[in-house]
């Protein structure tokens, strides 16, 4: 499932991030990928573990974890520390699939990347190009969202970021290991959860709502790994 999550960061947070990123030390984005990614990746990132990445990443991770839509859709078990990237002057990241296993820091427990997230930090009118293009079983999706909004997509998909030909595209991106590894099972649980919430809002805690909520939890019990 590819899902737009509006308002992960407030406008004030976005402005604060932008201010801090203005004077940041950027490194070559190829530092965090394997050879296939490195061949098509031309962008800049904050170094993993740098004080600014840790500080701003903490804010992003807390905002996402507290976001009900992100929680319901990603069912996160663990979230890797968020990264920050910038693209300008034709920078791009060609077609790739995110690595399956990542470690937050040397010696840390490995985490499986199930759900990929981009939190946009630049508004669409600030740059040309820079669309995130995600291809799934249903076709190709082009994503360019307002600053503060996020997109989540299965880490199993081929995706790319188109060259930025005017202005600068800043973003935070991160991976989560989900309690439910399979995208289709996560999608089914998400749709069930959203429909239960609609039924509950319309009819309150009727016996049918209680029964459906029980069914959601029993499916989660069957499918979740913790
Ligand atoms: O900048 C983005 O939106 C996504 C970046 C990306 O796909 C990656 O770093 O693996
Ligand atoms: Fe990626």
UniProtKB/TrEMBL annotation:
Residue span(s) of domain Fe2OG dioxygenase? 78-178
For this chain's UniProt record, which GO biological process terms are given? Answer: DNA damage response; intracellular iron ion homeostasis
Under Gene Ontology molecular function, one entry of this record is:
2-oxoglutarate-dependent dioxygenase activity
User: Highest taxon of the source?
Assistant: Bacteria
Q: Return the cofactor note field.
A: Binds 1 Fe(2+) ion per subunit.
Chain sites annotated for binding 2-oxoglutarate: 169
Q: Entry's Gene3D superfamilies?
A: q2cbj1_9rhob like domain, Rabenosyn, Rab binding domain
Which keywords belong to this entry? Dioxygenase, Iron, Metal-binding, Oxidoreductase, Vitamin C
Q: Which HAMAP family match?
A: Hydroxyl_YbiX
By what name is this protein known? Fe2+-dependent dioxygenase
What does the organism's lineage look like at the top? Bacteria, Pseudomonadati, Pseudomonadota, Betaproteobacteria, Burkholderiales
């Amino acid at each position: 499932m590819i899902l737009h999550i509006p308002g992960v960061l407030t406008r004030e947070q976005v402005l604060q991030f932008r201010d801090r990123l203005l004077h940041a030390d950027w490194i070559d984005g190829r530092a965090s990928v394997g050879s296939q990614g490195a061949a098509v990746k031309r962008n800049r990132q904050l170094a993993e573990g740098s004080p600014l990445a840790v500080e701003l990443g903490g804010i992003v991770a807390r905002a996402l974890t507290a976001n009900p839509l992100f929680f319901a859709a990603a069912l996160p078990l663990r979230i890797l520390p968020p990264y920050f990237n910038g693209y300008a002057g034709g920078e791009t990241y060609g077609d790739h699939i995110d690595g399956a296993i990542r470690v937050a820091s040397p010696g840390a427990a490995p985490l499986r990347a199930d759900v990929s997230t981009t939190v946009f930090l630049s508004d669409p009118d600030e740059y040309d190009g820079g669309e995130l293009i995600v291809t799934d079983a249903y076709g190709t999706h082009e994503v360019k969202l307002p600053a503060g909004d996020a997109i989540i997509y299965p880490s199993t998909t081929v995706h790319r970021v188109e060259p930025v030909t005017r202005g600068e595209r800043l973003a935070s991106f991160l991976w989560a290991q989900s309690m439910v590894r399979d995208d289709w099972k996560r999608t089914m649980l998400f749709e069930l959860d959203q429909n239960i919430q609609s039924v509950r809002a319309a009819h309150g805690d009727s016996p049918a709502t209680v029964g459906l909520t029980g069914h959601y939890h029993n499916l989660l019990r069957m499918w979740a790994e913790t």
